[in-house]
Amino acid sequence: MVGPYRGLFTRPGTTGFVLAGFIGRMPMSMLGIGVVLLVQTLTGSYAVAGAVAATTNVSFAIAAPLSGRLVDRFGQSRVIPPFALVNALALTALMLCAGYGLPAWTLYVTGLLVGATSLSIGSMVRARWSSIHAGSGTLHTAFAFESVLDEVTFVTGPVLVTLLATGVNPFAGLTVALLCMLFGSLALAAQRRTQPPVQRLTSSSGTPILIPGIALLSCVYLGLGAVFGSVDLVTVAFAEEHGVKAAAGFLVGAFAGGSMVSALWFGSRHWRISLRGRFVRALAMLVVGLLPIMFIGNVWIMAFALFLAGFAISPTIITGFSLTERLVPPSLLTEGMAWISTSIGFGVAIGAWAGGRLTEAYGASNAYGFALGAAALAAAAGAAGSGLLRIPEASSPAKS
């Protein structure tokens, strides 16, 4: 299983940008649950906590394609540093507003700034892999490896931020997330040798979202984001309902752990099934995996169920980015991948908001029904529109 991944690091500079990207994307898994834990602890309301987290994700979702276009136009080394510095100031302001008990609107304003200045580090790292392995079957393995790293962050990040927020100080988790963001993103920006070449945009370049296949993928990932956002928030409430709030990070990490295991296996295989076929099957598997969680009342059984449900996540992410890489022109690659992050961000915002409302109204177990419904809608959209994801055979040595 490990063999196919060894060849990824033969090119000079790959180890450096992979490590920097891994550290820089840690806040991706820490920010949402860190904001929920901080705001809920200080206000006592899951609804407010979910709304602040949703505000952050919505602003990220709106801004990500814009920052992606800036990266394509000016290069990662010029765009990352100013965004990272402003993001650090905005997150610091959010924590201060919460700590001093300022009005709720200040949390929304600072949360909006945090989201708007957050960069899609994963998209930038994948753009580097695409530049190095364009047109090669190795790119599938590289994207799978990135999904493994994504899930490592989602296994370790929630656990770390939960332990810090509940065991040390409500602010500790977000402080560590801030430091990871600064160090990792600035280290990535410093590595100019492996960054994709700056592409000259023309008046006819347009935007990737107008490509039918990208529009479909965006709709599907909107649903997947809603799954992620609602599961994260509802799981915190589920753990608290069962008297083990500190175990929330472990439960969320179990969901990501299943995805990490599947990513290792999925990326090590040579697939004869087309990309779109893999994509539709993975979406169906996610629906099946989420079915049992509404009916579980034991924390340890829930951890196992979430682990199994997570098996379908990485195949959808890996195939989605592979399809995006083949559907958009190189001059818009970072922006195209950012649209995936944007869709997930909008979905996470919807899921966090709905999860908070439904949890307070009906309890955590019933609120999991929202995640199941969102997954079903995503699977239906993917199956119905799969014809838009056909890739010409000449576009890649791998079957599409």
From TrEMBL:
Subcellular location: Cell membrane
MF GO annotations: transmembrane transporter activity
Transmembrane segments: 16-39, 45-67, 79-101, 107-127, 171-189, 209-228, 248-267, 279-297, 303-324, 336-355, 367-389
SUPFAM superfamilies registered for this protein in UniProt: MFS general substrate transporter (SSF103473)
Domain Major facilitator superfamily (MFS) profile: start-end pairs: 211-400
GO cellular component, one term: plasma membrane
Entry membrane topology: Multi-pass membrane protein
Signal peptide (from-to): none
Keywords: Membrane, Transmembrane, Transmembrane helix
Gene3D superfamilies: MFS general substrate transporter like domains
Pfam families named in the record: MFS_1
PANTHER family the UniProt entry points to: MAJOR FACILITATOR SUPERFAMILY (MFS) PROFILE DOMAIN-CONTAINING PROTEIN, PTHR23542
Protein name: MFS transporter
UniProt organism field: Nonomuraea mesophila
